[in-house]
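Page 42, continued from yesterday. The earlier attempt failed because a stray header line got pasted into the input along with the sequence. Redoing it now with the clean sequence only.
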Amino acid sequence: MPAQAKDDHSLESLKQRYEKLYDRKIQTQTQLESTTKQLEELQAEAAEQFGTSDIDQLETKLAEMQAENEKRLTDYKSLLDGIEQDLAKVESDTAGKSAAADESK
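This time it went through. Structure tokens are written below.
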């Protein structure tokens, strides 16, 4: 292969490689802009909803909310346990009164 043809082939190959890299650069920049915009929107939403967009403060707030949720679940379970016990007592008393009424007949 003559030197000129080899150089043209290499030059063409390098041009194609450059175009592919340039396309990747444009795609990456577009993706970066989109991701940056999304991050800014999420930070604004967090600041509005939770009063901060700081990750450490949000993690602390999340831990507090989880602890409060656990407390509420425990309180709710205790309430339901109490209702269940009261209902069982009423059922037991009712069954006892029914049995006594049947015996007196």
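Notes: The mean pLDDT is 91.
Reminder to self: strip header lines before submitting.
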